[in-house]
Design brief:
- The structure holds two protein chains of two kinds.
- Chain A contains 13 helices and no strands.
- Chain A is an all-alpha fold.
- Classes of the chains: A mainly alpha, B mainly alpha.
- The interface between A and B is large, with 112 and 78 residues.
Amino acid sequence: MKSWLLLAALLALTGIAFAISFRLYQKFKAHPAIQALLHPLVTGPLLVTGVLLLCGIDYSLYRQANSPFFFLLGTATVALAIPLHQQFHHIRQLASPLMATLLFGATFAVISALGIAWLLGATPETLVSLAPKSVTTPIALGIAEKVGGAPGLTAGIVVFTGVIGAILGPLLFSKLGVTDERIIGFVTGICAHGVGTTRAFEISSRCGAFSSLGLGLTGALTALVLPWILLWFF
Amino acid sequence: MAGSSPVVNKLRGVAALVCFQGIGEALVYFSGIPIPGPVIGMILLFAALQLTCTETPEWLGQTGYFMIRWLSLMFLPACTGLFFLPNIAADQWLPIIAAMVVGTLLTMVVAALLMKKLMPARAQEP
């Protein structure tokens, strides 16, 4: 009975933390640079972590209590098909630049991560855990397990990569003078998977559709190709 | 009858999405392919929409965009996991953080510039 109440409270904690962080995010609408850093995906988890540490509650218990959200995350993933369908005529026009960017971006994401980490003295296990960093979490975990990475580490790396891409990506694109929403969306989807796609939908539904496409294609491509390459190397 | 009240519309939309999610999960379970069930569900729903209708039915579109608008709420528990990573040897932190931050931003810059270059002139944003 008591544990049932605790689980309900941990579920409510997510809602409350989101409400607070969302309010805060809205308050800084006039200052885009500050607003980007205060995204609910940054402040929300910080709030939850603070409460969990203060109360001495394990993350695994919190995760269990919030399984409804993990389920809904899957349902929302299915819903990404809708903007994809509505924007498909734009996407079909651009088939060849999209494919070229996908192949190059997905490969470069893996090689740059491995190269930087290797130069700084990463162990083989760290390298294997890093390789699937730009792919959506469930695919990345499948790959890491297959080739002997550390799944817990990979999960954290994937989420952190998504948050970095989602938060700093839009700032970076405006510095580069890239204003085309199709480019912003597609590249964000390739590099920052679902978290980046969430951010892309805040820009526009067209940007979000291109991001969903990048996420889906990168996931499929990496899931099919990366395990073979890693097994060959390590 | 169809599309009578907003509540009925929402329920219909959620039922359809959960159905495709379930089909995706079932396919993954029985085939063992390493792609998550919801991603398969997304591909199937996309295929179904492409084959059957040019206009997305209003009841489905409404629910879909509602779900998408609250994606960051659904991501919150997963993102919290970031602060509860397993213990890692101290000398591995620098390579990990550098690879994530520098590698990701570098990839975004290079991929965006490449795609900008490849975009056909006539399809350029007005």
